[in-house]
Structures are given as structure tokens and as C-alpha cells.
Specification:
- By secondary structure, the chain is of the alpha+beta class.
- It folds into two domains: 53 residues, no CATH class; 41 residues, no CATH class.
- The protein has four helices and two strands, in the order E-E-H-H-H-H.
- Strands 1-2 form a two-stranded antiparallel sheet.
- The N and C termini lie far apart (51 Å).
């Protein structure tokens, strides 16, 4: 396995919360990083990957079985299904309306579509 962009630093999981879709949101805190480690972390920002966490130092044998290829998205959903799922999470968590999700979803898609049409004028 290539070790490009592999970050190994002491860290603490300081906060976690559950998400509507069943995932978790983690806040990981590190001590001061070396410039090289900070650069690796900067390059990893926003990327999907694998997290290995161990209370003792992570060694080669601990990560030997990680897959070499990391897919950015689960191919089980089409892009439109993924968008609908994300809109549902937004709707449940942030949007306050008396409309049901399906009505809000169609209205929102019409608004988005209209914004693109307006840009053509």
C-alpha cells in the first residue's frame, strides 16, 4: 500500500454526534503538527478515506489489509438519488415548513432549475 497522504499523528476524538443517515460526525484534536504532517492533513481535507484509530501507536500490520482503492461515492446510488438523500437530511435537520418532504423537494428542484434558466438571460 502506498503511504502518500497517510497521516499518523497522536490524536484525541474529542466530540462525536450521530447523524440522521446513521453515520457519525467526529471532531479529532491533535497536538501541534509538524509542517509535513500539516501539509498532508491539508491535502486530505474534504477527501473520503479510511480512519484507523488505536489507543497505542498504529503499526504497519494494523493497516496492512486496508484497500488500495478508495471510492469517493458508493456506486449503489445514482447522482440524483444521492442528491435526494442529502436534501432529505437537510429537510429533516434544518428546514422548517408545513409541507411534506415530497412537496418541498419538487418545489426546491423547480427553484434550482429556474435559477439556472435565469442565468441564461
Amino acid at each position: 500500500m502506498k503511504e502518500i497522504n497517510l497521516l499518523r499523528v497522536p490524536a484525541t476524538i474529542s466530540v462525536f454526534k450521530t447523524l440522521v443517515d446513521g453515520g457519525l460526525s467526529l471532531k479529532v484534536t491533535t497536538a501541534e503538527l509538524t509542517p509535513d504532517d500539516a501539509l498532508v492533513l491539508l491535502r486530505l481535507k474534504g477527501k473520503q478515506g479510511y480512519m484507523v484509530f488505536k489507543e497505542t501507536k498504529v503499526e504497519e500490520k494494523d493497516i496492512a489489509d486496508l484497500p488500495d482503492i478508495i471510492k469517493e461515492f458508493d456506486e449503489k446510488k445514482t447522482p440524483s438519488q444521492r442528491l435526494r438523500s442529502r436534501m432529505f437530511v437537510y429537510f429533516k435537520g434544518k428546514h422548517k415548513t408545513d409541507k411534506g418532504f415530497n412537496t418541498w423537494y419538487v418545489d426546491s428542484l423547480n427553484e434550482i432549475g429556474q435559477k439556472y434558466l435565469d442565468k441564461l438571460q
